[in-house]
TrEMBL record:
<dbReference type="InterPro" id="IPR027356">
    <property type="entry name" value="NPH3_dom"/>
</dbReference>
<comment type="similarity">
    <text>Belongs to the NPH3 family.</text>
</comment>
<feature type="domain" description="NPH3">
    <location>
        <begin position="195"/>
        <end position="439"/>
    </location>
</feature>
<dbReference type="Pfam" id="PF03000">
    <property type="entry name" value="NPH3"/>
</dbReference>
<dbReference type="Pfam" id="PF00651">
    <property type="entry name" value="BTB"/>
</dbReference>
<comment type="pathway">
    <text>Protein modification; protein ubiquitination.</text>
</comment>
<dbReference type="InterPro" id="IPR000210">
    <property type="entry name" value="BTB/POZ_dom"/>
</dbReference>
<dbReference type="InterPro" id="IPR011333">
    <property type="entry name" value="SKP1/BTB/POZ_sf"/>
</dbReference>
<dbReference type="InterPro" id="IPR043454">
    <property type="entry name" value="NPH3/RPT2-like"/>
</dbReference>
<protein>
    <recommendedName>
        <fullName>BTB/POZ domain-containing protein</fullName>
    </recommendedName>
</protein>
<feature type="domain" description="BTB">
    <location>
        <begin position="36"/>
        <end position="107"/>
    </location>
</feature>
<keyword id="KW-0833">Ubl conjugation pathway</keyword>
Amino acid sequence: MMDLGSEQTTQLSTHVNRKELLSNVMKRTSEWILSQDIPSDITIHVGRTFSLHKFPLVSKCGYIRKLVSKSSDAKLSAIEIPDIPGGAEAFELAAKFCYDINFEINPENIALIRCVAEYLEMTDEYAVGNLVGLTEAYLNEVGLKSIASSVSILHSSEKLLPIAEDIKLVNRSIDTIAYIVCKDSQYGLNSSTFDWWAEDLTVLGIEFFQRVLIAMMARGFKQYALGPILTLYAQKSLGGLVRSHPFNSPLCLEDISGKGRKQIEARIEHEKRAVLETIVSLLPREKNALSVSFLSLLLRAAIYLETTVSCRVDLERRMSLQLGQAVLDDVLFPSYSLPGGTFFDVETVKHIMMNFLEYEMVGNQLGFNDEENVFPSASDMEKVGKLMQDYLAEIASDSNLSVSEFISVAEVAPEQLRITEDMMYKAIDVYLKVCTLNL
């Protein structure tokens, strides 16, 4: 009596051998077609036109084989594939594979090749060692083995949606990055590797960047350690909006005149607004995880971009917790109001100051983590008092500042914060002189 398992193994072996034999025949046929310079018998339109041969294509591409077999035209000579992932560049690589023309697979093009192979159904069902299997082997053995290559694959996947999501290429890349970062951090290697991998992450769009950081935290990466990464990403992605001087033009664009400039500005501002709001949502809750100067730059950008109120309020509250570390430039917010308004945005500074005073009264009840100091120290109180007097002296020269606005800023800092009244008197003197000149 024949063993059933042996019979199944024999049948499987025979099936594989036949597929391998057929694959070798197809390979020789492709080589013969190329060597004989046989006229093409099918045209593929994928953004640009490719004049090719049916046999190499249908032998490896299930998608094209189905189109040809289902066509009512026995002599089908043209196929249009308008929505192929990666467009003409991706299809050209797939076509080369069908013709057994060698090309390099690397971290920069593997996502493109893997997605087009999936779309064209280039599986082992149609040819042994087909492109889907080949690309999967590369991903498992090379592509998804380091942060740099995984970031490159993830970055390429941004233009290959939704198919890159469907085949789990996005999630696999994110998981690899998070795993390696957290493993290095666990073994004390994070400090030595931070510079290069954090720089790598800045090429990602904000959605994928956010997903990577969330995956890192899910694996145990501490949120307070995200500060330097977010700082670097903000500097790269927000461009001219994150500047060291408050009164430079907030948005640097090419000199495009007329209606086109306005359209480009609106699109860029919309994108940057989404980036900024996401960055703020990811900021660590711990005090001193970020410098007050960097928080000031983010708030300045938030005011310009007119982000959500919650985004601006969050940044104001964060600044208030570290106001004792601020210098004058950190609180000189320009006003982006209509012509005729004040040069300085005094309302934002008043909000920050009131938050600081609230923090003084209620301590650590504002929703932030502060394991060092529950209340502002005496030194902080002294520094904030001097800062507000310096601020008042600075804005006193603004001729558009009304008397009521000037007084409201002067009153926001209580007397106990004032070490000396000298700067207050100086500010009042400057303001009165400016008002007199405008009479």
